[in-house]
Specification:
binds iron/sulfur cluster; about 30% helix; single chain; 6-stranded antiparallel β-sheet; alpha+beta; 7-stranded antiparallel β-sheet; Glutamine Phosphoribosylpyrophosphate, subunit 1, domain 1
């Protein structure tokens, strides 16, 4: 998963994009980048590097990113080593000057890359954004001279949506002419539009992954970009929208369950409220005959759910695990060794709250089970009597091909285990999951992707995914 942003029409475009990336840091911590374009000189300015946003940029690099429009990216690498050439934004200068960022994953990447390669296209990276860039460049190469630029771009995006399967949101710059964006046909990955009207009545626009960015930058939320929609914002402030290839709306349920900031809202459903409701509904799944002394969250995502669950059960809510804020979230580090190390470093325990107690631990999800098992072992080593684990996400039994790091089926702890077997594997005294109906109710009936829970994928060609592709 990644965080993306684009700003058009602001005198401080790069500074705003930089602030936005700080707000989106939870979506990826491996690298960051900003591409700006200067209409006066017709020049792109690019800075990107490995590391967190505040490590990648300083005043000097930010000052060099001149222009009234800019796009930015913060990266969460899911597979293999991170290579410099895979970092975003990516840009090309032929047949048109174009730069792009994306969030998501192309599920038929290998097949489409092979097709392009047969046409003598060569790749600089293993990033699936480059595939989209090639497709758009190809379409421009075959367009008629004199054709309207926006029509040409819309035709190129239609081709992308027709041929490229997966969950992706893209933001791009077409030279200094305009900012554009599109969302895959099912709208799996989020994309939000905001606007700011200055004292002089001049508008600037922001496209981004989460509404928390708009609030921070003082932009007004306009709406979620629709599935299969293409949006163009011209240099003159003209906004054009085209529904190119809309299909059933299936936003990723995991944005509400785990990934997004609690202060964000998608498709009219606030993340914090959804997590509270999930906690209330999860309370129904806890057997009445188990003795619970305290309900505790695994910090931080599951806190609202744990509060609501404790209220429903009438049990004390306690923070038994204290998070070391200077260690990053274990789920988004790449590679198993780093993950194990991160778990050890991440939490300390308040002995007085756990010694001799039965603790009902609430987590947002159980993916591999590595983190859960370590936490349970940690709490037991501090004298806890019994540890029960409740998950607001139903059992994850299938991989995600649309941009979330749910690994192969074999690595998923719930894949081939019954719930009691999961409990045994995690050394828990009981494991309780929310049901898929609870998820639907917590999202107020909103249709959503839940392929990792059911195996019913919105795009059929999942088997074409290439191992080693850099999802984002
Ligand atoms: S498969 Fe799961 S994680 Fe992936 S997009 Fe669908 S709901 Fe989200």
């Amino acid at each position: 998963m990644c965080g993306i942003v684009g700003v058009m029409g602001s005198p401080q475009a790069s500074q705003e994009v930089h602030s936005a990336l700080l707000m989106l840091q939870h979506r990826g911590q491996d690298s960051a980048g900003i591409l700006s374009v200067d209409a006066q000189t017709g020049k792109f300015h690019l800075h990107k590097a490995l590391g967190q946003v505040n490590q990648v940029f300083n005043k000097k690099t930010l000052d060099s990113l001149i222009g009234q429009s800019a796009i930015g990216h913060t990266r969460y690498s899911t597979i293999g080593e991170i290579k410099e050439q895979d970092l975003q934004p990516m840009a090309a200068s032929f047949p048109v000057g174009i730069g792009m960022v994306h969030n998501g994953n192309v599920s038929n990447y290998a097949e489409k890359r092979e097709e392009l390669h047969k046409n003598q296209r060569y790749f600089m990276s293993d990033n699936d954004l480059e595939l989209i860039l090639h497709k758009i460049a190809d379409q421009f190469s075959t367009s008629q001279t004199g054709q309207d630029l926006i029509e040409m771009l819309a035709a190129a995006v239609t081709r992308v949506m027709t041929e490229i399967e997966g969950g992706y949101s893209v933001i791009g710059l077409l030279g200094a002419k305009g900012l554009f964006a599109f969302r895959d046909c099912h709208g799996i990955r989020p994309l939000i539009l905001g606007e700011y009207v200055g004292a002089d009545g001049k508008k600037s626009y922001c496209l981004t992954s989460e509404t928390c960015v708009l609030q921070f930058l003082n932009y007004k939320y306009v709406r979620d970009i629709r599935p299969g929609e293409f949006v163009w914002i011209g240099q003159n402030g003209q906004l054009i929208s085209k529904d190119l290839l809309p299909k059933k709306s299936l936003p990723c349920m995991f944005e509400w369950v785990y990934f997004s900031g609690a202060d964000s809202t998608f498709e009219g459903k606030n993340v914090y409220e959804a997590r509270l409701r999930l906690g209330e509904l999860l309370a129904k799944r806890i057997p009445a005959d188990i003795k619970i002394d305290v309900v505790a969250p695994v910090p931080d995502t599951s806190r609202p759910a744990a509060i609501a669950l404790a209220e429903k059960l009438g049990k004390p809510f306690r923070e038994v695990l204290i998070k070391n804020r200077y260690v990053q979230r274990s789920f988004i580090t790449n590679g198993q060794d780093k993950r194990m190390m991160a778990v050890k470093l991440k939490f300390s325990v308040i002995d007085e709250l756990v010694a001799g107690k039965n603790v009902l631990l609430v987590d947002d999800s159980i993916v591999r089970g590595t983190t859960s098992r370590k936490i349970i072992e940690l709490l037991k080593s501090h004298g806890a009597n019994k540890i029960y684990l409740a998950s607001t996400c139903p059992p994850i039994t299938h991989p995600c091909y649309y941009g979330i790091d749910f690994p192969s089926r074999e690595e998923l702890v719930a894949n081939d285990r019954t719930v009691p077997q999961v409990a045994e594997h995690l050394h828990a005294d009981g494991v309780y999951y929310a049901q898929t109906d609870d998820l639907t109710e917590a999202l107020s009936g909103l249709t959503h992707c839940r392929a990792c829970l059911t195996g019913e994928y919105p795009y059929p060609a999942v088997q074409h995914r290439s191992v080693g592709v850099q999802r984002c």
